[in-house]
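Human: I hope this is not a bother. Would you mind checking the protein record under this note? Thank you for your patience.
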Amino acid sequence: GLSLGIACLIAVLLYVLDVLSYDRFHTKAERIYQINSISGYDGSSNRYSTTSTPLADAIRSDVPEVEEAARLFGRQATIQLVDFDSLSVDKKYLEDNFFFADPSILKIFSFAFLSGDPNTALANPNQIILTERIARKYFSSTEAALGKQLLFEGSIPLEVSAVIADLPIQSTNNIELLSNFENYYNIEPSHARDFLRRDWLYNPLSTYVLLKDGSTPLEVT
């Protein structure tokens, strides 16, 4: 009985340590916060880890305690390799960890860049960042990946602008392909884009903020 109790205690301790270690690899982890939303109806309330699209822009303009704000949205995606020399598109892949993000995500999260410039890697909608695993999967090496062309969902051409090290297992977001957030709109029909940009009720994505040095969540609220 004593041995079983000690074993259970160790198991619980290891679980707690694992949970507390999530996302600690970000060098600015102490200042990074994910925004939650709360909805209320008929005396009850529900908390969600997702938010609406316009929120990040409102935070940037109206919350002085925030240094950076960024939206992040993950989805499955179909990726094809493009060979412009032969004008062929082949080698189709279905990826589970494709993300859209504002360029400011590179100032909030800590990514280890193996190639490419973190200051410009997401500057344009036609750019995409790959992890080392994906770069080797597509092009056999990280060096060969830079500058290569991909086709997202059969319609949006993307150029590999950088390769980053694979994220640790203790990461909330298992990012493997990262594209500019504008493609979150571009992949949708034209009539839906304005709705996605302006609607405050639809809340499909995550919003992260980096507080300024010395600021606290209590000051923001």
